[in-house]
Amino acid sequence: DSDASRETGEGGGALVVSPSFAALQDYIDISSSLPFTPITLVFQDLKYIVPNPVFQRAKAKAYAKAQAEAQQGQIDSHAAKAASSPAVPDVEQGAVGASGAPEGAAPSPPPIEARETLQLLSGITGFNEPGVLLALMGGSGAGKTTLMDVIAGRKTIGSISGTITVNGHTADPRAWSRVMGYVEQFDIHSPAQTVIEALRFSARLRLPPSFNDQQVKAYVEEVLEIVDMLPHMNSLVGSPGVSGLSTEARKRLTIAVELVANPSCVFLDEPTSGLDARAAAIVMRAVRNVARNGRTVMVTIHQPSIEIFESFDQLLLIQRGGFTTYFGPLGANSAALIAYFMSVPGTPQLPAGFNPATWMLEVTGGSMATVLDRVDVDWPGLYAGSELCRENVARAAALIDARGHDCPPLAVVTQYAMPFGTQTRVLLDKFNKAYWRSPGYNFMRIGITFVVSFIYAAVYWGEGRIPNPADIGSVQNVMGIMFASSNFLGMTNLMSVMPVVGYERVVFYRERGAAMYDPFAYGLAIALVELPYLLVQAFIFVPIIYWMIMFEPTPEAFFYYVIVFFETISFYTIFGQTLVYITPAAAIAQVVGAGFNFLFNVFNGFIITYPDMPTGWRWMNRAVPPTWILYGLGVSQLGNNQEIIVYGGQSSTVSEFMRTKFGYYYYMRWWIVLILAAYIIVMRVGSVVALKYWNFLRR
């Protein structure tokens, strides 16, 4: 146990002395079926600065106010010119400085809206060693999660300075992400997976290819035992608060998903958040087991119970602004921590039976009960000048020297653990199961297709047969059914896919942060899993309407209609996915999708045909994909029709009418298939590029 590694040191605390690497490796080999590299993590003088959103808003308001005042000044200019005599003040004014404050007054710190940037971390130094459970604590907004995100390399905005070393070498982001597990505060999982499927998915994509499937399965079962999830291994994850796992079991699954990657270092962001005392104890027992296996473990935690607090080995306490208040060991029954704070005169005694964590936060002004009270003691300043701080700085430097000499730098040959083909196969297996277990999505769109096909067939019964001589009404009826059906079912697919991919996008962000797979493998897998469902839709809809409406009774025309309709619903489905990937939320994507549908309907050549369209807008007709959908369906039924049609006092064949009135040429039919295929491919590639580079997860 880690208690054996605690030795009393100077400055009212104790130094945690790690066991030798050889002894630690023996311990690891006994307690884990897969070997891993022990990690000593050191971070020195970490600072993190971000743009101040309050300043940006205030700047925008000030600009708007200045514009309004300028306009008002122009209005009042004549009145200003009329004032011919200088104004004399009624009362003598005191002298003021450049800032507008009375001379001699002490300068006050600028208000928050006057600061262009905010410093969230202010020179934090610390370390974490194998087998040691480190707690990050502080009041709300102190910077606990910010510090962890900076160390883990997960910040997407702001400026970071300082050094982060792994085993004595500067952390390489790609290698660092491969040996690290990050358990986020919010438990984000695919709801249609079972517990064991979620773990095998993570393990297979993150463990090296040298581990065969049997080793992976055995290790997954070992992790299930570590986190006490064996009874739930075949349970569906479900949706939070709706179905599936309880909150506490979901949290343990989140931990397990990271553990099956066999990480050397594990970060956990508030793993007990939202849990009752019993559930929190179960989760922390699992976390403690992880540390006992020789891994480096860092946990942010808010206000733990006495039992949970004293399960930690070390504590890093920070205050708002990212200042270190305390970094050192807890000691048995938190003795080292209590001794440090009690060494400061005026510190209130810890009441008997009182929680040391709560007492510590109240003393330093970090609890909700004291966050608004004035704290007279400069705790960060006291720590910066303490013997404990000097010991920690020296220890950090010594660890870098020792580990840098004993351990080679972390190195990875490839960005991802598994090759592209394996990534695609594993993702496809996941999506296949998820789609099969999602009747609300797939059965709905297939059911709607079935019902709508019979409605259209009943309303337009026999309208596909063009009489001889023909009239414009019969041609418009044929074009109308093709326009209405393709647009309605296309938009049904577009809207119905958005909530599905919207939730999965959040899961994708988590999995991408763990470097599980290439976004192009993700895009290929989700394209392949849609194919059978889209084919089912096409082969339900087309045969029903085709023969009941009595379209062109030739095999070529029938199968051509199937191909174009399949491309139609494929395009709309992929377009819906892409809109989700390029907008912040699925609800916004639906609004944007409705806007695009308006443009499609205006410019697709049905309401106003291409020859009748103003010349300056014809490029829009050729740019929107539904133009080619309607073009393809139209020429398949009418482009080669030789029946006579009379219109405007003139007569011609239907095929000639389609050329002059709609601009549709029969020879273009197979080119249209290729054009629609190109739209689908470009849209699919665009969706993957959006996933790869368009990130709405700001940290």
Automatic annotation (TrEMBL):
Record GO cellular component, one term: membrane
Annotated Low complexity bias: 94-106
Cellular compartments annotated: Membrane
Membrane topology: Multi-pass membrane protein
Main location: membrane
Single GO molecular function: ATP hydrolysis activity
Disordered as annotated region, ranges: 74-112
Transmembrane spans: 443-461, 481-501, 522-546, 558-575, 587-610, 670-694
Keyword Manganese assigned: no
Keywords per UniProt: ATP-binding, Membrane, Nucleotide-binding, Transmembrane, Transmembrane helix, Transport
Pfam entry (one): ABC_tran
Domain ABC transporter: 106-345
Gene3D superfamilies, alphabetized: P-loop containing nucleotide triphosphate hydrolases (3.40.50.300)
PANTHER family, A to Z: ATP-BINDING CASSETTE TRANSPORTER (PTHR19241)
Protein name per its UniProtKB record: ABC transporter domain-containing protein
UniProt organism field: Edaphochlamys debaryana
